[in-house]
User: Which sequence fits this backbone?
């Protein structure tokens, strides 16, 4: 193919092809392909020439075409519910650290907890756009997990309770974390402990509720459904949950929120009522996001290694991308109770 003249280059950038880049750089189109796909066996000098030619010609790689041609898009898809949560940001930070090291780009979609969006975005990403898929706290896995399994499309679920045998996932010891938190409050002589759950469709929320219930049972205390408010992991629901629990005829002396964001909402509601923390109400969270140590009083919470969760999820996905037939693995990382100043012994009130 002839080399394009300057006049030719004034046409649409979509007219620039891999062969044009090869002509401009004075290399074979196979070399250009290796550079685009971040493959080895290209000298630094040739790689620099190819990159310079791409910039000069305004070449934009068509990721979908590259994948359809049997190559790698070198892109990983990531689905999250919200970007406003520090929980999500910390996990994403760990994912990005690993993918950057391996020269993968990230395509991000936010679902805002809309199940139809989640399914649609999964379909879009797996149709030759991405080489693998990460889902943080997925909501509607039943609509697409079977298809991903049958196609052996590399995917990893983050912070999701699965059957283990079928869904690759990275999570933490949610049950044990909640149990430890409840045990701590019970050791502080609290007997009426309110609990604000996360979204009931998420596995981690289910496990934390089960940990709450198990701790009550092991201490010989009855489970009172009135003390449980069903939330969605968002701060306004922590606020509303606290209002509901504190309006009970016999209100709780402590409230355990299923994540830190909701615990902040509990703090807000308590202060509006003129309650002093922790003298009038003990509050405990889950996640240990950076803000937990900065609020007043500093929040006692269950630490999840969020950055590490992201790193391990990205590493596991890269393993599946290298070998889609690898055995399914479910990784569970430990949690730790971080004691700060938001809880107090009940007898000291």
Assistant:
């Amino acid at each position: 193919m002839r080399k394009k003249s300057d006049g030719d280059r004034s046409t649409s950038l979509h007219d620039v092809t891999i062969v044009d880049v090869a002509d401009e750089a004075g290399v074979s189109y196979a070399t250009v392909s290796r550079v685009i796909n971040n493959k080895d066996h290209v000298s630094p000098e040739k790689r620099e020439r190819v990159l310079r030619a791409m910039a000069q010609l305004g070449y934009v790689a068509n990721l979908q075409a590259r994948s359809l041609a049997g190559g790698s898009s070198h892109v990983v898809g990531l689905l999250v519910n919200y970007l406003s949560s520090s929980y999500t940001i910390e996990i994403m930070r760990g994912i990005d650290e690993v993918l950057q090291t391996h020269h993968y780009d990230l395509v991000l979609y936010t679902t805002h907890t809309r199940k139809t969006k989640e399914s649609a975005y999964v379909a879009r990403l797996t149709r030759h756009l991405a080489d693998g898929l990460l889902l943080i706290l997925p909501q509607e896995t039943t609509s697409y997990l079977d298809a991903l399994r049958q196609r052996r499309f590399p995917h990893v679920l983050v912070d999701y309770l699965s059957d283990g045998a079928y869904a690759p996932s990275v999570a933490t010891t949610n049950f044990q974390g909640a149990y430890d938190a409840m045990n701590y409050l019970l050791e502080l002589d609290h007997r009426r402990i309110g609990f604000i759950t996360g979204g009931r469709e998420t596995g981690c929320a289910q496990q934390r509720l089960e940990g709450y219930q198990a701790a009550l049972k092991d201490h010989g205390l009855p489970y009172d459904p009135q003390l449980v408010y069903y939330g969605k992991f968002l701060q306004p629901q922590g606020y509303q949950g606290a209002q509901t629990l504190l309006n009970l005829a016999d209100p709780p002396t402590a409230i355990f929120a299923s994540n830190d964001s909701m615990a902040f909402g509990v703090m807000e509601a308590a202060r509006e009522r003129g309650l002093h923390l922790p003298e009038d109400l003990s509050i405990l969270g889950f996640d240990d996001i950076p803000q937990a140590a900065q609020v007043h009083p500093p929040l006692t919470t269950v630490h999840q290694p969020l950055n590490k969760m992201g790193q391990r999820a990205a590493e596991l996905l890269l393993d599946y991308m290298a070998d889609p037939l690898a055995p399914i693995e479910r990784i569970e990382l430990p949690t730790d109770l971080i004691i700060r100043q938001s809880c107090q012994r009940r007898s000291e009130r």
Q: What stands out?
A: The longest strand covers residues 75-80. Residues 306-322 form the longest helix (17 residues).
